[in-house]
Amino acid sequence: VAGTSIGKGFQGTVKKYGHKRGLMTHGSKSHRQHGSIGAGTTPGRVYPGLKMAGQMGNKRVTIKGLPILKMDAQRKAIVLKGSIPGKTGTILEVSPAKLVGKNW
Question: What pTM did the predictor assign?
Fold first, then answer.
């Protein structure tokens, strides 16, 4: 089952990746900031793949292995067990799972 996940807007690293927050007292000024993004002059750049703040959600997500409970031909509906991406009423794409060693 594939669809677009619920968008959460621009989020920081604490919410997006579950990073720990900084001290809230004792004069700390980095409460929910991400911290260092790398060393100084050497290497003089930010390494690729660093987890930083940005858009969260609103992406195509695929959930594999959801069992089908019921198929209604009159209403053209499929009842699935489990959580599916997106809000209520989201259009989803249902396709056979590509699992290694399984051939339905």
Answer: 0.75
Report the chain's C-alpha Rg in angstroms.
Answer: 21
Q: Is 96 helix (H, G, I), strand (E, B) or coil?
A: coil
Q: What is the 3-state secondary structure (H, E, C) of 33-71?
A: CCCCCCCCCCCCCCCCCCCCCEEECCCEEECCCCCEEEE
**How many whole angstroms separate alpha carbon 90 and alpha carbon 5?**
9
DSSP secondary structure string, 11-23?
Answer: E-HHHHH-PPP--
Burial grade of 1 (CB within 10 A; 0-12, 13-18, 19 or more): buried
pLDDT digits (tens, 9 = 90+) for 30-77: 999 999 999 999 999 999 999 999 999 999 999 988 999 999 999 999
